[in-house]
Design goal:
394 residues, alpha+beta, Jelly Rolls, six-stranded antiparallel β-sheet
Length: 394
């Protein structure tokens, strides 16, 4: 439990600037700036955190949600919750990850103000393919239209895995659903994937997100007996976008209709919920319906949030006098020096500011020697080398 709060920090700063804290334009803002500068400058032990990867770690699924407070690219490691031996992870540039996808590598993308983790793992996770959606008969039976969907066709050009996807348009009917359904799938035992940590992964191509509410998956015995799950975002937690989206239907909880027999499942439906105004649109697609157990893993990282409130919620900036600093004694001394430096310049105590600047750098140097950062270094491979046999040329 942290012991230093905003009140204590302001009091200690005030004592070092000769009681002039009252003339600071905004003392809370000054303290927040000082904390942010320290966290930008150095990885503090007290800001190490762990969070469960979302979704579970899967082999062949690369996109995962990045914690909102992940500091830059300061990832420490990925560790499964069984605490079995884990591989040596490497952090690589995002472009290199896309190009090479080497085993046990991590990358971070920052586009459109969204941050995502990309992880290439070599775990072996249990999975069952309900349908590859490579054809209208993939998985047994025949895929048909659900709701306002029409013009079903196999698309061997625009797909994510396998050899094709199933394409559909939205009619002018003005209903509230559109998608695919199959009531005569090959009977499959899916019971082991429910009430656990399993997921159903589906790829969905969206022509336009306008008037689209969510996606719903149904799995069961028939149209009167099934389990269902709804998602409103992509698997990594980011909003649905135009183009391909990975949907993760978390099967740890679900809704039940009737009394489905999941040891002999033959029914599946995947569809969007929409408004009546979403009509006469073309080019929507689904690809792959796969149930996977995956592996629960924690992401260990450095946080960019230097505060937490009395309820334990981490904060980028303090807003209340009783907010706590995420800092131990050594770290508090560095934060105090930096905040005093900024405050001193603001109240024209330049001599104090210069002294605290030197003190901060001295404390930082000692701290860095004793507590080096554990975050992974980004390793960039500039070129891929190819073995050339004598007498041949590239």
């Amino acid at each position: 439990m942290p012991i230093f709060n905003q009140t204590r920090l302001l009091s200690d700063v005030n004592a070092r600037i000769k009681g002039k804290a009252g003339i600071l334009v905004d003392s809370t803002s000054t303290l927040n700036q000082g904390v942010r500068e320290v966290l930008t400058d150095i990885d503090l032990l007290s800001t190490r955190r762990r969070s469960i990867l979302t979704p579970n770690l899967f082999n062949g699924i690369f996109e995962y949600a990045a914690p909102a407070d992940l500091k830059g690219y300061s990832v420490i490691t990925v560790q499964n919750q069984k605490w079995t031996k884990t591989p040596f992870w490497e952090m690589v540039p995002y472009e290199q990850f896309l190009r090479r996808r080497d085993p046990n590598t991590i990358a971070i993308s920052d586009y459109d103000l969204f941050r995502k983790l990309f992880i290439k793992s070599e775990i072996t996770d249990t999975k069952t393919t309900v349908s590859s959606l490579d054809s209208l008969s993939a998985g047994g039976g025949t895929w048909g239209v659900f709701g306002d969907a029409d013009s079903l066709a196999v698309d061997s050009v625009n797909y994510t895995q396998g050899t094709a996807s199933i394409r559909y348009d939205i009619s002018a009917a003005g209903g509230t659903t559109a998608g695919l359904v199959n009531s005569t799938l090959t009977s499959t035992d899916l019971s082991g994937y429910f009430n656990g940590d399993s997921s159903c992964i589906v790829w969905a191509y969206i022509t336009s997100t306008t008037n689209l509410t969510n996606f719903i998956l149904r799995l069961g015995s028939d149209s009167s007996n099934y389990y269902s799950k709804t998602v409103t975002a992509q698997a990594d937690g980011t909003a649905l976008v135009n183009g391909w989206n990975i949907l993760n239907f978390d099967l740890s909880t679900f809704d039940t209709t009737g009394a489905p027999n999941m040891t002999a499942a033959t029914y599946a439906a995947i569809y969007m919920t929409k408004t009546a105004a979403k009509a006469s649109e073309v080019g929507y697609r689904f690809d792959q319906i796969i149930l996977r157990k995956g592996e629960v893993n924690n992401l260990y990282y450095y946080s960019s949030y230097g505060w937490q409130n009395v309820s334990g919620t981490y904060l980028a900036n303090s807003t209340a006098a009783n907010d706590y600093l995420n800092a131990g004694l050594e770290e508090y001394q560095m934060i105090l020096a930096k905040c005093t430096e900024l405050a001193a310049y603001e109240v024209d105590e330049e001599s104090t500011a210069k002294t605290q600047f030197s003190r901060y750098n001295s404390l930082k140097s000692s701290y860095s020697m004793g507590h080096p950062s554990e975050s992974l270094s980004i390793i960039s491979t500039v070129a891929d080398f190819v073995n050339v046999y004598p007498g041949t040329s590239i």
